[in-house]
Amino acid sequence: xxTDSLNYTLFxxxxxxxxxxxxxxxxxAAAVLNCGHKIDRVFFYQNSVFTxxxxxxxxxxxxxxxxxxxxLKAKYDFPLQVCIxxxxxxxxxxxxxxxxxxxxxxxxxxxxxxGLGEMAEAMHSSxxxxxx
Amino acid sequence: MxxxxxxxxxxxxxxxxxxxxxxxxFEQAPALLLLGQGIHWALKDAGSIxxxxxALNKLFSALPMYDCEQIYVEQDSLYNHRLxxxxxxxxxxxxxxxxxKKLMSQxxxxxxx
Lengths: 132, 113
Prior knowledge:
The structure holds two protein chains of two kinds. Chain A has helices spanning 21-34, 65-76, 84-89, 95-101, 117-125, and strands at 7-12, 38-44, 80-83, 111-114, 128-131. Chain A is of the alpha/beta class. Chain A has a five-stranded parallel β-sheet, sandwiched between helices. In chain A, helix 1 packs parallel to helix 2 (65-76). Chain A is globular. Chain B has helices at 15-25, 56-61, 75-80, 97-106; strands at residues 2-6, 31-34, 71-74, 93-95, 109-112. The radius of gyration of chain B is 13 Å and the shape is globular. In chain B, helix 1 links the parallel strand 1 and strand 2. Chain B has a five-stranded parallel β-sheet. Chain B is α/β, with parallel strands linked by helices. Chain B has a single domain (2-112), classed as Hypothetical Protein Ychn, Chain: A (3-Layer(aba) Sandwich).
């Protein structure tokens, strides 16, 4: 990281099924990282939480929406945070919540359920918040 | 100062409001700017979107108690939606395009819904 590097938080709201926001955000993240900046976190809110669904099974020749992020995370190691309240409403559960509600976990293991306090913290600590 | 812009009308789960309240809970109460269909957030008689959801007007009227005291509503949006200031919560400030430019330029971080 250079001395001029910035911390970015990406705040994603759109469903990955509705438009290209998810792909645009991932491409933006890759560009930011290639320029020597840092991704503080990617925060998935509202319908974007569907990106974290581990059960996504796209047609042959297409990649699941979460793969863009898991590949970037594997290379650069930044948190993929999913708003817990928004996720539970939409059936995205981790093991803890699945046990609590007697359901099955559906979240991809590279993503984590987090409270909105994480986003409030990002609003304070990140140099830039970019909304998709 | 952080700024949250509400451009979309209220949804049944009021998720945009949840972020506002979370920021306030962490002592970072943002300024709010309501534009376009987002001005419906500020209507005094805005009830629940869904029968089993929270009443929007009760939630919105509580914002000053959470130190969210800078709430701006764009004048042109009110006019375009045939609404007037008397229909809004009294703590809202009607603002014009010039003041909105200043508000946006002063904001350190902006999130739009």
